Amino acid sequence: MPRGTNRPTNQKGRGKGNKKKGGDHHGHGKRDGGDHGHRKKDGGDHKDEKVNGGDHGDGNMDAGDHGHGNMDGGDHGHGNMDAGDHGHGNMDGGDHGHGNMDAGDHGHGNMDGGDHGHGNMDGGDHGHGNMDGGDHGHGNMDAGDHGHGNMDGGDHGHGNMDAGDHGHGNMDGGDHGHGNMGDGDHGHENMDGGAPNGD
User: Fold this and answer.
1) What are the tens digits of pLDDT across the range 93-145?
2) Phi-psi region at 30: left, alpha or beta (left = phi > 0; alpha = psi -120 to 50)
3) How far is CA 11 from CA 17, 19, 22, 128, in A?
4) What whole-number distance in Å separates Cα of residue 74 and Cα of residue 27?
5) What pTM, to 2 d.p., does this model score?
């Protein structure tokens, strides 16, 4: 085609069409995807989203009330969730699984990760962050009232928690377990560490 001329409207392969099915890389709208499967959902009430991805599966969810985001990912699985009330984010990841959750009231973030599992949670009231990680498991939690952070980690497990009132931080770590906690009133910290002793 000569330069400077208008392209015909029926030219194949150049149109602005939306592809519903993608191959491996950056396929959007796939519930069960191979590589780089992305799925995002914005729901009002009682919206559920489940994502099962092979590698680099991303599950992002913004829900109004009672939003649930469940994710099982192979490698580098990410589950991000922002929920209004009673938001639940559950994640089982193989390697480098990340579970991030920001919840208004009664937010729950549960995570079981193989290696380098990270569970980060910011909750308003009664926020719960539970994490079981193999190696280098990190559980960070900032909660308003009655925040609970429980963590069982193999090696170099870290459990950090900042809670307003009645914050509880429980940690069982194999080696070099660290449990740091700063809270307002009635803060409780229980820690069982292998060797050497946790700080």
Assistant:
1) 656 566 666 665 656 666 666 565 666 666 656 566 666 665 656 666 666 56
2) beta
3) 12, 17, 21, 55
4) 17
5) 0.41
